[in-house]
Amino acid sequence: MAELTFLGAAGEVTGSRYRIDFHDDDRSRTLLLECGMHQGGPEADAANARESQPPPSQIDAVVISHGHLDHAGLLPRLVREGYAGPIHCTGDTLELLEIMLVDAAVVMERDMERENRWRRRAHKPLRTPLYEQEDVARTLELCVAHDYDRCTRLPGGVELVFRDAGHILGSAIVELTVPSGGRRRRLVFSGDLGNADSVLMREPARIRDADVVLMESTYGDRDHRPMADTLEEFSRVLEEANEAGGNVLIPAFAVGRTQEILYHLGRLHHEGRLRQQRIFLDSPMAIRVTELYARSWRALDRDDVQALHCAAGGDPARYLPGLRATRTVEESMAINRIRGGAIIIAGAGMCTGGRILHHFRYNLARSSCRVIIVGFQATGTPGRMLVDGAENLRILGEEIPVRARVHTIGGFSAHAGRTHLVLWAGAFRDKPRFWLVHGEPGAQQALSVAMKDAGMDASVAVHGDVIPL
Question: What does the domain layout of the chain look like in residue ranges?
Answer without folding.
Answer: 3-222+414-468, 227-412
